[in-house]
Amino acid sequence: MALLDINNLYKKFGGLVATNNITFSVEKGERVGILGPNGAGKTTIFNQVSGFIKPDGGEIIFNGENIIGKSPEFIAKKGIVRTFQIVKPFKGMNVYDNLKVATLSPKMKEEIKNETERKKWIEYIIDICELKNVAYTMTDLLPQGYLKKLEVAKSLAIKPKVVLLDEPFAGLTHSEIEPISKVIIKANEVSGTSIVLIEHRLKEFMQLVERVIAIDYGEKIAEGTPEEIVKNKKVIESYLGKGGEEIVNS
Amino acid sequence: MKKVLSFLLVVLLSFSIFAAAKTWKIGVLGPYQTENGMWVQQAVQMAADEINADGGILGRKIELVFQDTEGSTQKMQTAIIKLTTKDKVDFIIGGVGSGPVLANLDIMARQKIIWLGTGAASPDVTKKVAENYSKYKYYFRVGTLDSIAQGKSVGDFIANYLVPKYNVKKAAIISVDLVYAKEIAETAAEIAKQAGVEIVYTDYFPAGTADFSASFKKATEAGAQVIIDAIVTADGIQFTKQWYDLKVNAALVGAIAAALKPEFKDQTNGKCVYETSAYPNGGPAPLTTKTLDFFEKHENLYGVAPGFISFPAYNTLYVLKEALENAKNPDNDEDVIKALEKVVFPLGGDKGVAPVKFTENHDLVYGGDGASGIIFQWSKSGSWNAVWPYEYKTGEWEKPEWINW
Amino acid sequence: MYIFPVFKDYYLLNVFSIAVIYAVYAASWDFLSGFTGKENFGHAAFIAIGGYMIGFISSVYPIKPFLSIPLAAVVSAIFGILIGLPTLKLKGPYFALATLAVATIFEKLSISLSDLTGGEEGIYGIEFLTQGQISSFYFVLTFAVLAILIMYILGKSNFGLILKSLRSDEDAARALGIKINFYKISAFAVSSMFAGIAGSIVAHFYGYIGPDIVYPLSLNSIIMAVVGGIGGIVPAALGGFFLTFISEMLSEFGDWNQLLYTVVLILSTLFLPSGIFNYLGAKIRTIGSKAGEK
Amino acid sequence: MFANFLINGAINSSIYALIALGFSLTFGVAGIVNLYHGAYYMVAAYLVYFFITSGIPSFISVVLSLLIVMVLGAFLMKYPILYLQKKGESIYILIFTLGSAYFTQYLFKLLFGASYYSIPSFYDKSTKILGEVIPGSRLFAFIVSVITIILVLLFINKTKFGKQILATSQDKYAAELVGVNTSMIFVVTMSLAALLSGIAGIVISPFLSISPNMWLTTLLKAFSIVILGGLGSIPGSIIAAFFMGYLESFVSLVWTSSMTEVVFLVIVFIFLIFRPTGIMGKKTI
What we know:
- By secondary structure, chain B is of the alpha/beta class.
- In chain B, 44% of the residues lie in helices and 18% in strands.
- Chain B has 2 domains: 24-145 and 288-357, Rossmann fold, CATH 3.40.50.2300; 148-280 and 373-392, Response regulator (Rossmann fold, 3-Layer(aba) Sandwich), CATH 3.40.50.2300.
- In chain B, strand 6, helix 8 and strand 7 (198-205) form a beta-alpha-beta unit.
């Protein structure tokens, strides 16, 4: 049994079907990507898995427990954490305090016994996420690249089992992407956190993930390794266009 | 020679300082940003200037210290404490609005300062004196009439004039939803009831109401011939305008504060005709031989006629003057209180601008040669006439021409 | 006594007492609104609940401050929770209007239900805080210092940090598993509790509770906290203290005083949005750190 | 009685709708809750009073006052509000506009005193409808309100400029992409809102009173109506205005006048909690 099993996830907004019986699973320590054009329903999947939107049907089995329709707070406590497409740093405080907020969540309350432990843990996260030189900078003053990193760092700070990353590279330059990409891989390899990624920067995306689920119009159209996906006819038609193979191979 | 001169100078200086210090320092409380407060300020200033021009009280000039209470209990308390501890005033006069005055009677008692009240029409104010004389004896209501007495004057007019003359049988109450106003309306209605008038409809509207048409409609549908109103807020203006515009089939009789001044005509664009209101112990009628002169002088001095609070405000200093002149020791509060209790400005007399006579609870005596309420009406010709009681009549009460009872 | 000559001046003492109470009003507004970003436009309702409760009890039974203060604390904290529960989902102008509506309903009812509330005349004859002016001042001062200190410590704590995170983004906090409703309700309860206690103390201080001393506070609390600076309790409290102090001292100026008050508010929202005392605090800190470097 | 209810409800509602319309537009288009909205109503009324008593013919007085109010609205939006909006925090806009409204109140109190004023009716012939006497000033207010509302709706839906306003209210960024100068649209919308509020302030002055605190209840009502109708929804505001206008008449008819405002606010509160998007709103909050 996989760590996270999503079966026939179904959601309708008014007359529009946003996710139509989507089924896929995520193994422990796996890096999975979700691919699809804008409006295909990728973020809606994240919203449902993380509890921000209540699905209309289906199952989300996490660690053997059906968490469908549970609140975001409940799901985060179980160990699934998400990031947002538009960064949401806590304004009016510095990076350290941002991470501290994460360590104050119910999940970490059980693991962190006292303030020294908390400090150590925050410093560890700062370290692996390479945020040391801005640790005491107010988030209001940080450039986008650091904010994106902080977004990932905050999610890692609650020791999640699964991280849902929603376009962590959007709006960044190539040199800014690399460190974040490194952080993601590090977190995945060091603590065995599963990663689910939505991203339009295909080159980086394909390099990062081990398996891809392609969706369009709320339906799953293909699943496979990056190499398989870029050759898939349906995927090419709906999304990649002709240059898909080049991107992956370059 | 030099020594003698400088000695003389020192003596002279110290004498003048001594003389300057010997004034009657009087604190004046009022919400000066409102019309009521302005009335207090203007009338008290006018009286002080007159008395000072006349040589002061017992040779000592009056020195006024004005403190704005902004209509708030809190500001009034600060003001009283400042006046009594910092300015060290001898007396306090003024106070508008029952809430702040009632709340600050305890502060007055604590500071033991004589207070001549000009507003605060709640009967509870002097009830406190009755309950605990030794504690609250410092307060005297020089005005205005309390809400019960104001209601009485309205009720008396209905019972003794409208009922016998027009055979009024049914009345309605439409009044603003404030304690002070409700007491006026209910007292008036009670007296009317005793004269056989049935109260067929009662409605209290919140201050700031825009539309009275439903209330008027319901009152007349219930058969009311008279609408007893008590509107102490500025709502009285639009209330009267709407009554006129709708040609409501019931006479408007009661106590509309805004109607008690000449500006009412402009404020209603002349739609005030036939409106009838009781003036509490004041107004352009010969209550004493000085009343009409005062009215005119105030208009000349300030460009506006005195309001209903101007009368008691002006009176306070003259009441005080009389008491101080008769007190055994004018610097002893107990003696001054005793002398104040004996002050009488009789109705029709030549003292003060409105009758003053205190009950044992330091309230105004109502009726007889004491305080009274005069009913005024805005006549069809546009003049503002005293119509009741007969002694003061400057015109006959007119039934609105659209009324068919 | 001789060190603080102010203590012999009853007038200043009175002004001080009022100013420290206003500091609590502003600080308690800040605890909810400045921290969580839920702008309460009806803070007066929370003050009124404490004050009027004491008034109601007093009209039947002369209640003493040592009893009424804990009672007011409990009742107003519960009231805060009751108002908080349905409104905490609302954002921005919706929350502002909801709280404004609550305060206005309170105001209208306290005028209309005059048999119970005394209408516009209020309820008077409430037991005084203490017999003397000086002891009353110390009572008020002690309470104010304690209240502000407690709120300050709470604000500096991890609890306060979470509240601040809600101000910036509730969803981001939820995604991390933080039970935002619990924190919002708690902030409501704390804010309401201190406002309610302050209201009950004011009722005892004046021996009176009425619409004139309560309902203008919805606006005033916002002005004081915003001009002082939000999100740190102490700047807001200082804003409350100084604005009240100045306004009381300038009371002779009447209308000009009020006009000046609004001008200060307008200018500070435009040019010092972080608040006067937050700004000064930051200035002092930078000067301090520069001096430290040398 | 029923005819009275019907007619007076319609008159009150139409004025509410006029005031609420501008408030709703400002929110819908610029996303701004303008607590100064009630002050336009007051400023226009005072200006008309001032001009008329200075001997200026009433028509010119009205036009002049409305022009001044429109300029005031445009100025407030162009400089302080847009400046604050760029800075982000919406609370400062709320506080700035509320503070400015109080500033105006105190200023007018200093200039005109605490007295209440009135202006003569523009039309003063009573009419009988369904057996009810309708004062001319009210009928005038009703007709002016209805005509103004219709004109505004036509302006928004039929003119090019109006369509730009609509586009901006639906999607500011998309509008900018197709070349709409949204800052300019914001300024014009605020000016229009000020005009509507100003017209309301002028038409009610003959039968209500002009006073320095007339803006607050007006603002509170407009705010409530707009929330009830769904923030930013123009048809919603108009429907809500009529709902509330009739509700007030209904409460005073079957219960008591003193509870009209309480009932009004309780309903607003309940709506906020259970249906914060209002009658017509679809935007989530």
